[in-house]
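The aim of this short unit is practical: by the end, you should be able to scan a pair of folded records and say something sensible about each. We start with the first protein, listed as its amino acid sequence and then its structure tokens.
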Amino acid sequence: MKRRSRDPETPDESAEQSLYEALLSLKNSEEMGAFLSDLCTPAELEVLVDRWRVVPYLLEGVSYREIHERTAVSITTIGRVARYLNQGSGGYLAAAARAARRQSLAAKKAKA
């Protein structure tokens, strides 16, 4: 994590909380995409996408090698995501569960 040589005016905890609130204030995927495009460099956004891309495969129990072959994401990144899926704060699991519910509802609406 990046360390600064001087104390910023806004404490890290307050700035971090402000970022979370900004993310929660966005209304849809288009707004989120615009925000993340402004916030992140293309390389940073690519890293986030790569991490998220492997989550469904890990939840299905696909091997690291197979995930790598399907996604071209590095084995190191796959291992990092797997570690946080198993030992993290539950963020990946919560987001994956909500995304699955959203897809299921969309599929039901499409059939109706």
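Turning to the second protein, read its sequence before its tokens, just as you did above.
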Amino acid sequence: MTQPATQPAIQTEHQEHPIKLYLVVWGMLFVLSLFSYMVDYLGLQGYLRWSLILLFMILKAGLIVAIFMHMAWERLALIYAIILPPLLVLVFVAMMVSESHYVLSSRMTFFGTGP
């Protein structure tokens, strides 16, 4: 009986990113968090407050996904597979909000404001 030939060593491609990149991103996340807290500290109200909070939240999530989850170095097809569904959910939510305003407007027009 002969022994099978040994398998050639499988080359795995491994990327290492400099620690400076992670420290810079960590610093950017810290600054964006500081800005988020400043929105509350300054007492901003209304749409400006919520717009700024959402903007900082999206920027922080984007940095985390791009750098710490290594999406910046992935193939475009994988990026689309992960990013596209949440974007479509946001589009559908915007459509539902728009429809809810229309329904409320119709009810106020036809049924009045009182009970």
